[in-house]
Amino acid sequence: MTQQDYSLAELMTAAAAEAFRGNGEVLATGIGLLPRLAASLAMKTFTPELMMTDSQSWLLSEPNNVSGRAASDRQAQESWMGFSRIFDNVWSGKRHAMVGPTQVDAYGQTNISALGGEYTKPKIQMLGVRGFPGNSICHANSFFVPNHSRRVFVPGECDVVCSIGYNPQRLPRGYSLDDIDIRLVISNLCVMDWGGANHQLRVVSLHPGVSFDEVQDNTSFDLAQVDNLTTTPAPTAEQMAIMATLDPANSRAKQLKDNPVGDRRRLEESNNV
Amino acid sequence: MDKVRSAREAVSAITDGMTIGIGGWGPRRKPMALIRELLRSPVKDLTVVAYGGADVGLLCAAGKVKRVIFAFVSLDFIPLEPYFRKVRESGAIEVSEIDEGMMLLGLRAAAWGVPYIPTKIGLGTDVVRLNPQIKMVDSPYDDKEWLAMPALKLDVALIHVSRADQRGVCQIDSPDVYMDDWFARAAETTIVSCDELVDSAHFQQGDNARSVFWERNVTQMVVPIAGGAHPSSCDPLYGFDMVHFKEYAASASGDGIGAYLEKYVSAKDEQAYQSLVGGIDAIRALPLPVY
Lengths: 273, 291
Known about the structure:
A: alpha/beta, seven-stranded mixed β-sheet, B: alpha/beta
């Protein structure tokens, strides 16, 4: 049997789609091309109940292509969903967002606001907290990290804590840590969840050819691992075909630097030939 | 009942130290012609409330702003607003950084005449630590703590719409109203620029009245400026001007705000500005973005 070649972006997208499995009728929001492709893939395969927007102002019954669209292309609109109505949905809790934070700490707190310096004069001003505070206390969130490193998975706390996590010191009165719902972390090295002791970040599967030690070396805090650590499954032929249909311009090939292969062992084999 | 004013007359209602809210979202349907008029005025020490784009970047860089109340400032395809970034990194302005939804609640509280709206948004994050003016409250109905999002009362709101009549009936054709209706309602004085000034009979036709999102008594002044959202978009009339935004962004790391203002804003009226960016026909031909 010949194994189909797949890119790391495609492996990560298929792994990220798993975050939406069994979610039911929630608004699936993927911020960035690969998370959006992942949510769309889940909607087209195992979670057809998902709801999705056109990233503007309409709820769609079929996801739009993530690339190659023209302004005149028709889309499968099913209801108006302007930004104020997005908040009505956010606050109901019926949403699962997959976002790409610049920093993630051991508590699952994240940062997209500012880096370094003093808050009144940051070294780097980024976007601002956006909707992260509300998202994190209202509904499920997953993280997509294309560059797993100590700069992303930071020691201590994030420079600016934009989202609530599993931090007992910051827990509001009347809340328990179980009220916080952080699902998966999909990085370029592995898939993780927050299912370790006391919600410790835990490696669930390693991408082909990656070791736990490599993941730990690139993380500033201690990681747990599941007992039966598996290899992240390759995308199926069906998933590959659907990704190609949803992304006809192959923009997924431009999301990770140099578009690495999904199974780095195959690269090593070919180098040894 | 004739609320039509020139941009200069309208903007003269804004004085030093006022709190102004700006409609639109990032690079979309911003009242940029009114912002340019504000840049030409001597006004300073403003507090600005916005889902920010180049409106916030320009006002901050030009030294008009004391404090920004924001959740983000972004041009979408240029994720980090170049001048806002520069001003923040120099420590030149004060900020109140809040969640996008908290801003909506603050505007609603102001519109509804209540001092605050209780919410769980912001709890457990640095939004609480960095905004000591935002207080927590107990609920009479449960034992949890709640964040009391204070009313964001605006002295003036600046908004750009597709169409308006001289009585202040405003129509938005764009697929999203954003939070413009709440900015309008939260303000003492709402100044609306419009791409088209129409007769009141326009609203009696078909479903036009369905895309009027606030009542005319909410709007105090109407400023007709075709293309007045440029370089932001006014969907479906025109998209945002990527070429102009790129030049604007490049100026932040190049000659700076002085050169940009000199070229496009200072000592120029809107007609002169528009001829520099290709004229109204070129603006109306800007393609709509595809997301």
